[in-house]
Every structure is written in structure tokens, then in C-alpha cells.
Amino acid sequence: MSQLHVECRTGADLIADLPALARLRIQVFREYPYLYKGDAEYEERYLRTYADATDGVIVVVRDGDRVVGASSALPLAAETPNVIEPFKSHGYAPDRIFYYGESVLLPEYRGLGLGRRFFEEREAHARALGRFDLACFCAVERPHDHPQRPRHYRPLDGLWAKQGFVKQPQLRTTFSWRDLDEAEETPKPMVFWLKHLD
Ligand SMILES: CC(C)(COP(=O)(O)OP(=O)(O)OC[C@H]1O[C@@H](n2cnc3c(N)ncnc32)[C@H](O)[C@@H]1OP(=O)(O)O)[C@@H](O)C(=O)NCCC(=O)NCCS
Fold it and tell me: What is the DSSP letter of 78?
């Protein structure tokens, strides 16, 4: 644990880490509430969008040489239509919004402040770009009585609120993925959270 190192990587500097980042995401997103049956090839392709997008970034945490955490962000305008559309239809200017992708940490590295650091690094990146009024991300909504919900599951809403984000129940979309117990992908309801950067 003494060798922890956090860095923001962009563009071509991300390429060498993509396989390790894909493995990390697949491992972490098996957990509730994601329950994601990951596919390494898809994950690498998805992560490449952060390398290819102008002003995309991934905050990478290493313990020595090993990638143990990551958190991604890019301008909302570089996202797919299902992510941009809810903002357009509610009168927001997508060009003024910075989108946070996912944060993942191996369980043994949680509770050390790295989750907070992910938010700080991505916000600093957005602010340095100087053209964003808002930061946003979205979170999956599972029914409260979901059979896979661990008895002591603690939602991350507290962490997000502490970082200055407010849930926006009117801004919603769906992401499709295959749950561990599903034969094929199904759409999952996603709700956005927003923070003003001014
Ligand atoms: C999300 C994640 C990266 C957070 O990382 P972390 O290192 O455990 O978070 P931190 O230690 O920085 O905690 C930050 C703060 O949030 C609080 N917090 C952490 N988890 C929390 C939770 N589940 N609910 C409420 N508050 C929480 C901490 O107490 C801490 O508060 P403080 O600022 O007063 O000290 C990590 O839990 C993770 O990888 N989870 C699995 C994947 C995931 O759910 N990703 C998020 C959606 S993509």
C-alpha cells in the first residue's frame, strides 16, 4: 500500500494501460448494483473513447506497477446520443457540461480517500479546460428489494452529495448491459447527478 501513485492520463498515454483498466472494471463491476458480466474486448473499446476524445482523461491509481483504481471523464459532447439527449431535451447546452464516467477501486484500496481524490482530479481537469459550467454523471437505479442487494449495502449517494452533486430525477437515460444472471443485454435505468462548477 505504500507505493500508491495517482496520475491523470490522456490520449496516447492511455493505450498501454487499456487491458489492465478493462480487467479492473470487469472485476469491480461484477459487484452490486452493477452485476455486470463484462467483456474485455468491449471494455477496451469503450475505454479507448476516453483516449480518443479531445480533453478526455482517466485518473489511474497504481500500487507499484499494478493498476488498482481508475476514474474517467470527458466532455459530454463526446458521449453517445443516449447520454446527451436528456440534457438537450431539458434545455441544457451539452458543450458546457463535463461528463464523469465510472470510478473503480479494488476493494482493499477503498476508504483511503481515493474516491474523493477521483472527484477532485476530474473537477480540476474540467476547470482547467475553462469552458464547462456543469459536471455530471449517472448512476444505475436498482429496485430497493433487488434479490442481489447485499444486506449491508451502502449506496454511494452520501459520497456524491458530499462532493457537491445533486440528483436530478428528471434527467434519465438507459444503458444496456448483460447482468451476471442474464442471457442477453437489457436496458438499465440511469439517473443523472449534477454539480455547478462556477
Ligand atoms: C466509489 C469508490 C471509487 C469510492 O472510493 P473510496 O476510496 O472508498 O472513497 P473515499 O475513501 O474517498 O470516500 C470518500 C468519502 O465518501 C464516503 N463514502 C465512501 N463510500 C460511501 C458510501 N458508500 N456511502 C456514503 N459515503 C461514502 C467516505 O466516508 C468519505 O467521506 P469523508 O470525505 O467524510 O472522509 C469505491 O467505493 C468503488 O470502487 N466502488 C465500486 C464501484 C462503484 O460503485 N463506482 C461508483 C460508480 S461508477
Answer: G
Distance from the alpha carbon of residue 151 to the mean position of ligand 1, in angstroms: 18
pLDDT one-digit tens code per residue, 13-46: 999 999 999 999 999 999 999 999 999 999 999 9
Distance 89 CA to ligand 1 centre (A): 31
Query: Would residue 91 be called left, alpha or beta, if left means φ above 0 and alpha means ψ between -120 and 50 degrees?
Result: left
Ligand 1 and 114: CB distance under 6 A? yes
Third-level CATH fold of 4-196: Aminopeptidase (3.40.630)
- Give pLDDT < 70 ranges for the chain: 1-2
Domain assignments of the chain as residue spans, ordered by start:
4-196
Residue 101 CA, closest ligand 1 atom number: 48
Residue in 99, 101, 105 with CA at minimum distance from that of residue 25: 105
